[in-house]
Amino acid sequence: MDIPHPYLMFVGDVQDQLAAKTAQGIVDWRPEWCLGQLRLEGCKADLGIPDLTIAEAASRGAKTMVVGVVNAGGVLPEHWTSAIVQALEAGMEVASGLHARLESVPAIREAAAAHGRRLFNVRHSDQRFATGKGTRRPGLRLLTVGTDCSVGKKYTALALEREMRARGLDADFRATGQTGVFISGRGVAIDAVVADFISGAVEWIAPAAAPGHWDLIEGQGSLYHPSFAGVSLGLLHGAQPDAFVVCHEPTRTTMRGVQHPLPSIQEVIDLTIQCGRLTNPGIRPVGIAINTKAYGEDEARACLEAAEKAHNLPATDPIRFGVGKIVDRLMEDFPA
């Protein structure tokens, strides 16, 4: 998709920061594309960029309003329609990462047609996928997996790409979610793919490559999450990863949106190896990425040291401390 920028980031009236993670991801990794944010009354998220009205954004050259939110079911709340229509009337395109298609709302569809504007549904792909085959293919692949949703799988993969490229390694981030597609300009939102074709779609995202090339595949959900484990498992089989990094948020006791307890890091390591061996018998963990945002400096370092000692793997917070030690382990385990 060729989605024109700069963007006006629309976060509606979401009730926490995590619900704006699509918008936040774009701001964090493509800040030069983001002019400002549009928040409705009652919004509890803040992207840390200027608050703009639609008119102000249009006058400053915004080309697309991005609906940068996530919610259960990926629905488009009815009371957001007027803001989307206003953006179209002001001359902007509109892009959304929700499951609901923008044109499914008559007022939005009609406004886009009347003003000659485009609607981008980033979560939906026109690409047709085969079923996964699980046949070994050349190239190297790393998958980020999680103890839960929204624990840093995308950020870890992007941080690994940046660090590995800085060291001269041949590495590419492979997006499997709407935010990643916005950031990279390519990929497939795996959770919108028909179940039978999930693993095949991942094989398409990360195809056969040169022997030394790394595809860094963005993980989704968790093998332990009762809502999303099906997506996570299909992604694992299609990714056929040689290596994986476990992503974790240490302050949670239950998984997001459900009452099930958060699995331990070791449980995720064990289940990932058990399931991943189906398509890559050599799968192995190479690191742990822990979101220590809730901790002070000393507490964060103590948490990481404890994880390293418990699992004999490098542990870091990719945003706070970088991913250098995980790349060191990767190069040690997979020498050129």
UniProtKB/TrEMBL annotation:
Domain named D-glutamate N-acetyltransferase-like C-terminal: residues: 129-327
Pfam families xref list: DUF1611, DUF1611_N
Domain (D-glutamate N-acetyltransferase-like N-terminal): residue spans on this chain: 40-124
Highest rank taxon of the organism: Bacteria
SUPFAM superfamilies, sorted: P-loop containing nucleoside triphosphate hydrolases
PANTHER family on file: DUF1611 DOMAIN-CONTAINING PROTEIN, GLL3100 PROTEIN
UniProt-recorded name of the protein: NAD-dependent epimerase/dehydratase family protein
Species for this entry: Azospirillum rugosum
